Amino acid sequence: MSHSRYRTLRERKLAEGFTEPAEVAEARREIRMSMALAKAVHDRRTELGLTQSELAERAGLTQAKISRIEGSDTVPTLPLLAKLAQALDATLNIALDDGDTRVTFTAHGQDAA
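== Helix-turn-helix domain-containing protein ==
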């Protein structure tokens, strides 16, 4: 089945009142959160001009671990997030609202407004 045909089928189902099972909706939400973190880490790392290896060295991690975080393949623990924030010389900001997840790094010395 082509991708465009899939979209059409999914849109038809949604228009007919089809709703996803709760576990599918929850899985999508978890993926969105992981992807938001991955993008924030990648954006801050590239803003600083660091390679994955350089960030890994700063954070006391492996390059593979950084790659898994940026690829949304793993969900880091709170202590690991603290190490990342310190290595990225920033404050980690996470906002989890219904249907909206925002993850940003605010460079130290900037207002967190």
